[in-house]
Amino acid sequence: MFYHAYDSYLKYAYPYDELRPLTCDGYDTWGSYSLSLVDAIDTLATLGNNTEFARVYTLIQNLDIERDINVSVFETNIRVIGGLLSAHLLAKRMNVPVNATWPCTGPLLDLAVALANKILPAFDTATGIPYGTVNLVWGVPVDETNITCTAGGGTFLIEFGTLSRLTGDPVYERVALRALKSLWSKRSAINLIGNHINIQTGAWTANDCTIGSGVDSYFEYLVKGAILLRQPDLMDMMSVYIKAIDKHLSDGSGWFVFANYEQGRKTMPLFASLDAFYPGLLTLVGELDRARETLYAYHTMWRKFGSMPEFYNLVQQDCMQGREAYPLRPEHIESIMYLYKATKDDTLLFMAADIFDAIESCCKTSCGYTSLKNVKDHQLDNRMESFFLAETIKYLYLIFDEENFLHSNGEYATEHYTSSGSCFLETSFVYNTEAHPIDIGALDCCTSSFIKEKTSTKVDENTLTKEQMRWLRDSLLNEELNGAIKKNFSTLTCSALAYEQRFSIYGEILT
Ligand code: DMJ
């Protein structure tokens, strides 16, 4: 499956962002980054393809990011910066020559930093929640909207935390945390949040709370940020949200619907395909029975359609009109992977096989795999989003490759020697929301080198900014917490809908 999709992209679409699998050509979608290549490079590592990984590793170092083009801050972060960071961290395992200061330096890390610097101006808002778009040359466009979705504001900590911990520059982690915490501060008295927010005033402009579309990866990054950066307070926040979600969004039988964030009144009886990441999140926080209940409910949807519609009305028992598509999304398979990893329940393998078979028989074309326009008649669309290579296939593969290095849960490690001592890599990975794995050990490796370097030169307050000193102290504290937090959590997802489309679905738009 992977090579049919990937080779077709290379043959028909590269250097465009995406493949069109019906017309067998390519086009740019998210910023002319050759996006599918950047999104797919770590899937090559997952499959153990050293030669192709090395070829792509060299190729993407030349990505031109000095272009007068408007790009999505969210998508650039999760797909491009996430992909670059992951490839950077996997380079040594894939036998790409790295220098003595790797993983704290490297060409793809430099590129990720340069790209992050291009989107940093987006965070300069009254709330700290970023704008949705930047121009790679000019910064935030003058006419850029002040409205962003919750996920668009709160899905940066994995990538930006990684940048800070690898480079020693706290600015990235700081802005990402500020945005996350700013969203937290806007929760209602019943601990729910809205769907879209004004980033200058902090007022919610779409009042429906959901676990999925427009919100999903905000929740995901609280959990994964807590794990990756050892910040228990983020996990505490998610615990509060989980209770409120259970109370107000749950229908009591595994499904979650939309509810008004202030009163908790249920507003729309809709399932959205992005909801399907949630059993994975419940697995990560140790709620296995509840994860299973919801995942089984969602699998009935898969069995009904041989795919999942973008939106389904649980009362009418039908797809929402105009939202019947299946764009090859990964969320359901992602949750299956987490739950299987945690339980080894064979039933989940059969579910994964269902998904593989359906995609193989319904979505395969002579030049790739294509989205379904309508899950009811399996009419084909002409799009293979890059996340099919980055996520859907990776998670599917990982379910059936139980010995894969990415499954490491601390029982395996490789020792890495640096000028400040040795550290351990590949003990455990956290996936960003685009399924790009981040090696937790690499962050510790660079953080401790940075700390040793700074402390051995007897840093006085004058050589570091206050912010750097605070960050250093926090990092040292986190090092201590390192041993204390033993839970093995690990994954998961922002929707790729245009804002206008979202506005048309969510009932309550305030301006
Ligand atoms: C991906 O880009 C990411 O998983 C994101 O968080 C949600 N949308 C797609 C997959 O559905």
What's the layout of helices and strands?
Elements: H1 2-13, E1 18-20, E2 25-27, H2 35-47, H3 50-59, E3 70-72, H4 73-90, H5 107-119, E4 133-135, E5 147-149, H6 150-153, H7 157-167, H8 171-185, E6 196-198, E7 204-206, E8 208-209, H9 216-229, H10 232-248, E9 258-260, E10 266-268, E11 270-272, H11 278-284, H12 288-305, E12 311-313, E13 318-319, H13 331-343, H14 347-362, E14 364-365, E15 368-369, E16 372-374, E17 379-380, H15 386-400, E18 414-418, E19 421-425, E20 429-431, E21 437-439, H16 440-456, H17 466-482, H18 499-505
Helix pairs in contact: 2-3, 2-4, 2-15, 4-5, 4-7, 7-8, 7-9, 7-16, 9-10, 11-12, 11-13, 12-13, 13-14, 13-15, 16-17
The chain binds 1-deoxymannojirimycin.
Span from first to last CA?
A: 45 Å
Decide which structural class fits the backbone.
Answer: alpha+beta
Largest sheet: 3 strands, antiparallel
Give the % helix. 40-55%
Strand percentage: 5-15%
Radius of gyration: 21 Å
Oligomerization state:
single chain
CATH architecture: Alpha/alpha barrel
- How many domains make up the coordinates? 1
Q: How many DSSP helices?
A: 18
In round numbers, the mean pLDDT is 91
Strand order of the largest sheet: 5-6-7
Overall geometry: globular
For the secondary structure, the number of strands is 21
Bound molecules: 1-deoxymannojirimycin
Low-confidence stretches: 480-511
What's the level 1 CATH class? Mainly Alpha
In the CATH scheme, what's the topology name?
A: Glycosyltransferase
Keywords: Calcium, Endoplasmic reticulum, Glycoprotein, Glycosidase, Hydrolase, Metal-binding
Protein name: alpha-1,2-Mannosidase
Binding site for Ca(2+): 433
Subcellular location: Endoplasmic reticulum
